[in-house]
């Protein structure tokens, strides 16, 4: 399970569309995320300094645990290293629930709920945030479609009065093979739900990616892809890699 986030002036460093499936009870997963932004026309605040996003490396370490057949929790630690700067821890995230509703195939569309709390390092950002996703997944033979309507809200700091923001992320995966699965993904940060931005003012990305499963029981997965920014507020090019290991 992965998670993606773009809130207010905070740009996403990690991109993934969340699926319906959760871990089995007592199953664990370690995940290492890496993102490289080789081309960007934008800058951002990094511990009070205005730095370019061009050349930014971001890393995240994640641990997941299955509480029940339907309920997974997780803990993340995020790190960033802009070009010419030192690698620093910037944020902690706690997934309070990734909960699948009903058994797979019982509903016309498989549904899951996802809730996350984000606590930044104080000298990096000052706003705590919460995020809620509705996960919608449908398998049609060898084809899998996923949508992640996402709602985000600051719960502390000077911008706490801002309204709920909305993002819509989705993916198409060709799942005929159990080992290699090519994928197309889209990410759209649309602004405040009350007054959404026009397309040209949104952060929009299109990724080509794949999932490669390996190991005797396919317990290892490598997800990687390249994304292109489609609008001016977006970074130009993003390269991502996510390595995961599931075990009991």
Describe the secondary structure blueprint for this structure.
Layout: E1 28-39, E2 43-46, E3 49-52, E4 56-66, E5 71-81, E6 88-101, E7 110-120, E8 129-140, E9 143-154, E10 165-174, E11 180-192, E12 203-214, E13 220-229, E14 237-247
Description:
Strand 4 and strand 5 (71-81) form a beta hairpin. The strands form two sheets. A twelve-stranded antiparallel beta barrel has the order 1-4-5-6-7-8-9-10-11-12-13-14. A two-stranded antiparallel ribbon has the order 2-3. With 248 residues, it is mainly β. Helix content is 0%, strand content 59%.
Largest sheet: 12 strands, antiparallel, barrel
Question: Would you identify the regions where 5 or more consecutive residues have pLDDT less than 50?
Answer: 1-9
CATH class: Mainly Beta
User: What is the number of helical segments per DSSP (H or I, 4+ residues)?
Assistant: 0
Question: Would you give the CATH topology?
Answer: Porin
Number of strands: 14
Q: For the residues shown, what is the average pLDDT?
A: 94
The whole-angstrom Rg is: 17 Å
Q: What's the CATH H-level superfamily name?
A: monomeric porin ompg
Number of individual domains = 1
Structural category is mainly beta
Strand order of the largest sheet: 1-4-5-6-7-8-9-10-11-12-13-14
| DSSP helix fraction | under 10%
